[in-house]
Amino acid sequence: MQTIFDYAVIGVGAAGLSFLKQSQNNKGIKTIAIDKNIFIQKNHIFGYWDMPWTKALNAHSHQKWKTWSIINQEEEVKFFSEYHAYGIIYLDKWKEECLKNKDDLVIIESYVRNIVKKNNEIFEIILENNDVYYAYNIVDSRPVKLEKKYLKQHFLGLTIETKYDVFDENKLILMDFRVDQSKGIHFIYLVPFSKRKALIESTMFSYNEESNDWYKKSIEEYLQKFYQLKEWNIVDEEKGSIPMILVKKPKNNFINIGTMSGAMKPSSGYAMSFIQKQISDLFKNKSLINRKFANPHKLVDLWMDKIFLKVIASNPALAISIFTNLGKTLNGNEFALFMSGQANTLIRLKVILKMPKKHFLKALFTI
Asked: Quick one: 39 exposed, middle or buried, by C-beta within 10 A (0-12, 13-18, 19+)?
């Protein structure tokens, strides 16, 4: 008789891996993970702030910073947090940790062609080569498919090494807006690994993605202008695009995780942190057994994000002042909590009072 797995994890990216990591605590559960690219997907860096639910990430993070900044043409807003440091983790490192215990795990490198509910208890999973597997539960972390035009956060990043000590290894630059703003909201994200090594990422909020050459030219001009660099060695390259919209719950009987179920914060991303919270909540209070939809965001935060996205979509030129004012309003701890969906009423009130009231009120009555 063919094995019926307790869980079939479809899509093994950050969310699928995190589910497998958490499920290791439940001994005796039979799990199958299906992803064509599980062992060949390109490495990627995830950023997050230390929160109670990121302890597993902290144990395997590559590096952390207690200081970060937001920069525009006129000023630099600096942050410091003793309790909520900014950390990064590599996808490859996280994958190694999440797959190290394979006793009750079967891994299949394939695409899923179809999933059929055979009866009230079992799902039939049909792969691209027509192989068939069965499971009591489907854990779906495949990317959400969006057909309409939507605002995106898209980026290309280069990890480089230089011959000279040019980077401040103790300060991460979260957003530097001193770059071309002609095509949309554009900033540089700089992660300093050492004085001679850093990730420099050209990031945009806009409807249309740009060519690789455009991002790379932006990075080149930035390094020449602000670090007087003319040459460097490229160690690694990464590119991505994430939706800046509210993702609705899919209409199915699956356990939906990751971007499919709204783990991505619409206004800023930071999926890895919210995925950890989503998965942690899912394994509590029988939510997993009941297939309860686990959205890691508070309704008030989603409401604020919706207004914010409406404003910057209509008035992209306001984005720089909005982010700068946000930085000048909150200290490091408050900023980290706000970006991680853990702001209290006082923090939210501080943010609201600093926003351009005319534009936000207009957006409020049109969403």
From this structure: exposed
Class of domain 152-243: alpha beta
Beta strand residue intervals within 144-267, DSSP E: 152-161, 172-176, 185-192, 197-206, 233-243, 255-256
Weakest-pLDDT range from 50-59, 258-267, 298-307: 258-267
Distances (CA, A) of 165 to 67, 160, 225: 19, 13, 16
| Cα separation, 137 vs 129, whole angstroms | 22
Q: For the range 37-42, what are the long-range contacts, defined as Cβ-Cβ under 8 Å and sequence gap of 24 or more?
A: 37/109, 38/12, 38/107, 38/109, 39/109, 41/13, 41/91, 42/238
C-alpha 318/C-alpha 324 separation (Å) is 10
Tell the burial category of 181 from Cβ atoms under 10 Å away from its Cβ (0-12, 13-18, 19+): middle
* Rg from Cα positions in the chain: 21
Q: What is the pLDDT of residues 178-203, one digit of tens each?
A: 999 999 999 999 999 999 999 999 99
Nearest Cα residue to 230 out of 171, 173, 164: 164
The residues, any chain, with a CB within 8 Å of residue 104's CB and separated by 6 or more, are 27, 28, 29, 30, 31
- Above 70 in pLDDT, residue 115? yes
Q: What φ, ψ does residue 191 adopt, rounded to 5°?
A: -110, 105
Measured distance CA(338)–CA(330) in Å, rounded = 9
Domain edges within the chain:
4-58+91-143+245-282, 152-243, 299-364
Q: Do domains 4-58+91-143+245-282 and 152-243 have the same CATH topology?
A: no
Where is 221: in which H helix or E strand?
helix 212-227
C-alpha span between 144 and 263 (Å, rounded): 11
Residue range 4-58+91-143+245-282 forms a domain whose CATH class is alpha beta
Side chain identity at residue 44, one-letter code: H
Over 1-22, what HEC string results?
CCCEEEEEEECCCHHHHHHHHH
Note the pTM of the prediction, 2 decimals.
Answer: 0.90
| The residue to which tokens 């179809």 are assigned | 114
Dmax (CA) of the chain:
70
Q: Are 134 and 6 in contact (CB under 8 A)?
A: no
